[in-house]
Each structure stands twice: as structure tokens, then as C-alpha cells.
């Protein structure tokens, strides 16, 4: 739960897999995409085909939360997402024996519920620590992505820093992805 930077990154990157950010091309097109996304973010789960629609719905809801921009709306939206997946909250020892906040999902939570919990915690942590001005639109003219800036100086401009800086990079990246798949 203290790891809000990682979880805010998960929320940002989930939102930016949406077809609207990729000129119609969904980056969660199938369970293989979803599996890769989970692995990238250290979420230990094997997605079923039935998880895909639920995760995409969550993605839409999370986008609304990131688009809100006022603290109250962001907080209430993210709190709802947390409540959707939360089982218990308490302290647990980490690898060094230090007690850390720990939020566990409900035993019957499906994958989308678990991601709602993780993304919601990331949003709440970033909002509490950094404030609503860190929730921003991508500065690229050709990108409709959004992001939570968790960098220390707070000067991040792009939703996908390696890509959105220039259009040519994006086109090349998409061509590579197509070639790979
Ligand atoms: Zn962008």
C-alpha cells in the first residue's frame, strides 16, 4: 500500500492501453496482451477469456477517475474501485521484517476486482502524497492519453515518455508491435 508509485504506474498504463489512445487499436486485444500486461506489472494471475471484458470495463472507469482532476471526485472514484476488490487491510512484515501496510483482495475477487483494488490504491496514494495537479493529459498533440506524474520534480509531460515525444516514434513502435504479433 506504501508502494503507490508502482500502483499509480499500473493505473496509468492500464488506462493507456485503450484503443482511443492508440488510434483505434486496442492494446488489450486478447488474453495474451492481458497476460503480458499483468507480468509487466508483477500481478500474479492467469487471465481467462472472461476476464478481458471486465478489465476493459475497469479501464474505462479508471480513465474517468484520472480525467476528473478535482481531488474530491478522484478520491471518491478511486475509493469505489478499492472497495470493489478489498478483502482485508492490515500490517504484514516485508522481506526485511519491517511492518508495512498490506491490502488483500476479497477471496472471491476476480481479476478485474483485484486490478481495481491495485489501481485504486495507486490513485489514492498519488493523490494524498502529490495532489490532484499530478493528474494530467499527455502533452503530445496526437495523443489522448493521460497519466499520473509520480516523478519527484513533477515535470513529466507524456503518458508514454518513450513514445509520445514524437509522432514518428509512435508510428515506428506500432509497426514493430504489428510485426511482432
Ligand atoms: Zn501520450
Detailed description of the structure:
This protein has 181 residues and is mainly α. It has a single domain, classed as Orthogonal Bundle (Jann2411-like fold). The chain has 7 helices and 4 strands. The chain has helices spanning 4-15, 31-40, 49-68, 71-85, 111-130, 161-164, 167-180; strands at 86-93, 99-105, 135-137, 146-148. Strands 1-2 form a two-stranded antiparallel sheet. Strands 3-4 form a two-stranded antiparallel sheet. Strand 3 and strand 4 (146-148) form a beta hairpin. It starts with a helix and ends with a helix. The mean pLDDT is 92. Bound molecules: zinc ion.
- The best one-word shape is globular
Number of domains: 1
Largest sheet: 2 strands, antiparallel
What's the rounded overall pLDDT mean?
92
CATH class: Mainly Alpha
Strand order of the largest sheet: 1-2
Task: Classify the helix fraction into a percent range.
Answer: 40-55%
**Given the structure, what is the number of helices?**
7
Helix and strand topology:
Layout: H1 4-15, H2 31-40, H3 49-68, H4 71-85, E1 86-93, E2 99-105, H5 111-130, E3 135-137, E4 146-148, H6 161-164, H7 167-180
Antiparallel strand pairs: 1-2, 3-4
Helix pairs in contact: 1-3, 1-5, 3-4, 3-5, 4-5
The protein binds zinc ion.
Amino acid at each position: 500500500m506504501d508502494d503507490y508509485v508502482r500502483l499509480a504506474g499500473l493505473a496509468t498504463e492500464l488506462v493507456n492501453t485503450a484503443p482511443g489512445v492508440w488510434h483505434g487499436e486496442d492494446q488489450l486485444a486478447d488474453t495474451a496482451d492481458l497476460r503480458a500486461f499483468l507480468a509487466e506489472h508483477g500481478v500474479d494471475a492467469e487471465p481467462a477469456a472472461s476476464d478481458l471484458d471486465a478489465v476493459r470495463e475497469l479501464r474505462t472507469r479508471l480513465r474517468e477517475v484520472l480525467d476528473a482532476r478535482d481531488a474530491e471526485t478522484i478520491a471518491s472514484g478511486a475509493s469505489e474501485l478499492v472497495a470493489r476488490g478489498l478483502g482485508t487491510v492490515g500490517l504484514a512484515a516485508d522481506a526485511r521484517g519491517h511492518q508495512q501496510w498490506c491490502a488483500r483482495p476479497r477471496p472471491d475477487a476476480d481479476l478485474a476486482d483485484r486490478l481495481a483494488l491495485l489501481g485504486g490504491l495507486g490513485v489514492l496514494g498519488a493523490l494524498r502524497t502529490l495532489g490532484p495537479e499530478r493528474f494530467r493529459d499527455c502533452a503530445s498533440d496526437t495523443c489522448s492519453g493521460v497519466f499520473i506524474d509520480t516523478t519527484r520534480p513533477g515535470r513529466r509531460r507524456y503518458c508514454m515518455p518513450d513514445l509520445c515525444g514524437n509522432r514518428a516514434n509512435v508510428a515506428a513502435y506500432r509497426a514493430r508491435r504489428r510485426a511482432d504479433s
